[in-house]
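User: quick one - fold this with 6-chloroguanine bound?
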Amino acid sequence: MRLDYLTIFPDYLAPLSLSLPGKAVAKGLIELHVHDLRSWAHDRHRTVDDTPYGGGAGMVMKPEPWGEALDEVLGAGGPDQAPATVVFTTPSGEPMTQALARELAGRERLVFACGRYEGIDQRVLDHARTLAEVREVSLGDYVLNGGEVAALAITEAVVRLLPGFMGNAASLVEESHEDGLLEYPVYTKPASWRGHDVPPVLLGGNHGAIAAWRHDQAVRRTAERRPDLLHASAAVSGEWAAVPAVRGDAAELLTLQLACWVGEALVNGDLTLPPLQEGLDDVTASLSSWDTYVVRSAGRLVGSVRGRLDGRTWEIGRLMVAPDLRGRGLGRHLLEHAERVAAPEATAYRLFTGAASTANLRRYKRAGYSVREVLDGPSGPAVLTKPRRG
Ligand code: 6GU
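Assistant: Sure. Structure tokens for the protein plus 6-chloroguanine:
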């Protein structure tokens, strides 16, 4: 693997030749190249930044040095080089995770572009996308002065996963982490230290009991420190807040949609229902033509509904609740929310459900809807309406 770094502080990356990446270089697993971005700035002061168009605080990194640097570094491997992935380190990137480390560990070339100031001119990223795969990556929800520390951290997470670096031990350790849970506390000798004792269960040889204790500790820690990692069904609060959906919700919306409509398809004997035919692009596009709302519980998207005006009727659709969280009032809550946010011109609500979806029909009737007609179609969708009051 070849790793390149573009930065205005090459010294900041000196630790790369120490410790872990240094060891990987010595083993011949990786090749490191640190570049000073200013060597592609040609004015007397080797300027790399300028004031932002449109005004605002701070400085923006100019496109020209970045453009030349990327052209040169990406071409450095010769004509039959492996394709590179360019990692722009930025607080507005996707979060760095173990999964992303694993993904990057599979690349043959990584180029780290370390941003400074208020960011890099957007056209640099647009240009880079014409040359290579581009990832914008953040270490977390806090702001550093520049992306160099992030590039170091990402490098360390990636390099330790390279085959041959730590033998198989590393991957085995990774695999044995209980998925999605924080690590349990660990102890070594002595069994008693300054009045603190090692939990007795660890001193006995009962491996089943030890595994159970560790699992319990991992769950407790996760619930305490990272409730967002726990499965929603283990942490459901009953306090639902429907908020407008954003593009980043689309993948989870599609997953929930598929989970919900497979059941509908089976009940109605129709696997051609539109919600089962859609892909990520369709769901993303729908966010522009509908007012879509989502409910999250402990970070997980567990419910959604959408509405839009058709004449003077507020059409409500895609009312969905995660299958494992039904029967807790979330569906009713979402329906009431969809009615509450109807456009002011609306004089009635309308929704559709499969003619054979008796549970849905019962629920909608209880909420004040009546069946207007049953349409022609494999699932004979029923059209229900309800007048708007007040
Ligand atoms: Cl990658 N860069 C900067 N400047 N700040 C950050 C970050 C990256 N990740 C979290 N904060």
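One thing worth noting: Residues 10 and 36 are 6 Å apart (CA to CA).
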